[in-house]
């Protein structure tokens, strides 16, 4: 049976539903721009929830930097074609502020970006430079900065998150850090997963039981850290309730991906953005784009049949390898949708350095699309596509 083609007329189409695509559509919706969006949101689940600006500089040997704004000023001198070097500082600050304000209205609060990077915790017990963290993780940043007496809790059966590992790796920098393992209420045997625990904590009775279990092993801490499990929806309310029951600041630490903070962003995007006016074609990739003419034509399909989009403008936010925005082949790296030229090392042998933890990074991570000052992609002759 032949399926009818659905037609969508819009001012803007965002191709890609990763973090960049989500940010793009949030800015568009905030300006009442009629927007459609297509792409697979799976990559969102692989994010920590942290929002980075600039955590290190190649020109400084890849070492971490505390002042990202000074780092960008250096970047303008050393790598003037770097994307961050081509955006005014005031615009970057305003964009961060606008994005986190929009997310807060959608149910996920973030700390206000400041002048310096934060030291955020990782599931391995290392520190990561970032500019803004979810409100559910802010107390961890604060506890580390003042080296507070703190206990990290994990759960029997939870894979990929060890409070002992975190404490062992941070002991020199945080002497008053302690580790405790407890049984998550009603789950005494077998493997458990962060998403399951997060959804369980959306029920008040489960939060009450967890608080009692934590109180039984923590008596003198000034703060308590746990894996990121404070609910999928309304995490700030889940945290506030647990915190009231425990009587001291609590915070989350991201788990290995896929992690709850990323799942939160994904479900918020899929559920709340359409309520704010976004036409979302979820989990579907654009198959073709015709840039000829005043109207851009895009074709894709889902389980209900073909979809044709007529759009005045398009934002390409397909990401890199994990989301399919770039593809790696034996002969080189390609951009599969528009066949845009990809700036890349001359040979596949130059993609990676000998040492995995090379401080200056790997050349493959510097591959990408050349753009003009307005971030419009360029063809092989250097002309706007």
Task: Write up what this structure looks like.
- By secondary structure, this protein is of the alpha/beta class.
- Among the domains are: about 135-255, Rossmann fold, CATH 3.40.50.1860; about 325-380, no CATH class.
- The protein contains 9 helices and 16 strands.
- The strands form 5 sheets. Strands 9-2-1-12-11-10 form a 6-stranded mixed sheet, with helices on one face. Strands 6-5-7-8 form a 4-stranded parallel sheet, with helices on both faces.
- A hairpin with a 2-residue loop joins strand 11 and strand 12.
- Helix 1 crosses helix 3 (about 90-105) and helix 7 (about 205-215) crosses helix 8 (about 235-245).
- The longest helix is centred in the N-terminal third of the chain and has 18 residues, at about 90-105.
């Amino acid at each position: 049976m032949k399926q009818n083609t659905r037609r969508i007329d819009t001012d803007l189409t965002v191709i890609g539903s990763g973090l960049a695509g989500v940010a793009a559509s949030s800015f568009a919706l905030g300006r009442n721009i009629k927007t459609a969006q297509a792409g697979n949101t799976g990559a969102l689940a692989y994010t920590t929830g942290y929002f980075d600006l600039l955590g290190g500089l190649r020109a400084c040997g890849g070492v971490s930097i505390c002042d990202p704004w000074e780092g960008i000023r250096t970047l303008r001198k050393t790598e003037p074609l770097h994307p961050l070097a081509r955006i005014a500082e005031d615009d970057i600050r305003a964009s961060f502020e606008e994005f986190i304000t929009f997310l807060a209205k959608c149910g996920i609060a973030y700390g206000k970006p400041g002048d310096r990077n934060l030291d955020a915790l990782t599931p391995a017990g290392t520190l990561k430079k970032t500019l803004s963290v979810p409100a559910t993780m802010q107390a961890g940043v604060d506890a580390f900065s003042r080296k507070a007496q703190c206990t990290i809790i994990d759960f029997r059966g939870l894979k990929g998150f060890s409070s002992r590992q975190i404490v062992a790796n941070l002991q020199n920098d945080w002497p008053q850090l302690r580790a405790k393992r407890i049984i998550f209420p009603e789950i005494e045997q077998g493997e458990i997963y962060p998403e399951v625990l997060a959804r369980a904590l959306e029920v008040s009775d489960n939060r009450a039981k967890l608080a009692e279990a934590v109180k039984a092993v923590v008596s003198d801490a000034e703060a308590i850290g746990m894996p990121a499990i404070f609910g999928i929806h309304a995490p700030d309310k889940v945290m506030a309730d647990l915190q009231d029951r425990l009587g001291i600041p609590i915070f989350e630490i991201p788990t290995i991906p896929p992690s709850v903070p990323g799942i939160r962003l994904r479900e918020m995007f899929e559920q709340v953005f359409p309520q704010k006016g976004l036409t979302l074609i979820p989990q579907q990739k654009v198959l073709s784009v015709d840039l000829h003419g005043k109207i851009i034509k895009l074709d894709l399909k889902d389980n209900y049949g073909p979809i044709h989009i007529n759009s005045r403008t398009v934002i390409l936010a397909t990401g890199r390898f994990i989301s399919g925005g770039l593809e790696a082949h034996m002969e080189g790296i390609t951009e599969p949708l528009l066949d845009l030229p990809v700036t890349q090392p001359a040979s596949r042998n130059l993609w990676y350095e000998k040492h995995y933890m090379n401080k200056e990074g790997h050349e493959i991570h510097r591959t990408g699309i050349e753009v003009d000052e307005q971030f419009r992609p360029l063809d092989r002759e250097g002309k706007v596509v």
